[in-house]
Specification:
There is one protein chain. The chain has strands at about 1-5, 10-15, 20-25, 30-40, 45-50, 55-60, 65-70, 75-85, 90-100, 105-110, 115-120. The protein is an all-beta fold and about 120 residues long. Strands 2, 4, 5, 6, 9, 10 and 11 form a 7-stranded mixed β-sheet that branches. Strands 1-3-8-7 form a 4-stranded antiparallel β-sheet, with no helix packed on it. A hairpin with a 3-residue loop joins strand 5 and strand 6 (about 55-60).
Length: about 120
């Protein structure tokens, strides 16, 4: 089992920056990918950024060059999403995501979400 707890959301003006964090605890040794998804009102949840393997990263086209995902494995796994040059269309609930893989099964885990609001 893996637990994910996000923090760092809030209200920011367009053009500003914000960093959200996610701490993963539990059976973190089986995690092989962590990242962030977001869901805006009335829209489907979408991938924002993912980090997997030996820090291989993947970004949504809409955030490339503005957002940076990073991971700190010092104690528990902490995943950061640095968001720069924020736009009103970045407004959404941001969910931390982790995928675990063992020889027996693959599982997806989600955090409770943190809201990011970008005002114009």
């Amino acid at each position: 089992q893996v637990q994910l707890v996000e923090s760092g959301g809030g209200l920011v003006q367009a053009g500003g920056s914000l960093r959200v964090s996610c701490v993963a605890s539990g059976t973190t040794s089986s995690i092989n990918a962590v990242g962030w998804y977001r869901q805006a009102p009335g829209k489907q949840r979408e991938l924002v950024a993912l980090i997997s393997g030996r820090d291989s990263t993947k970004y949504a086209d809409s955030v490339k060059g503005r957002f940076t995902i990073s991971r700190d494995n010092a104690n528990e796994i902490t995943v950061y999403l640095q968001m720069n040059s924020l736009k009103p269309e970045d407004t959404a609930d941001y969910y931390c995501y982790a995928k675990t893989q063992t020889p027996w099964r693959t599982r997806d885990y989600w955090g409770q979400g943190t809201r990011v609001t970008v005002s114009s």
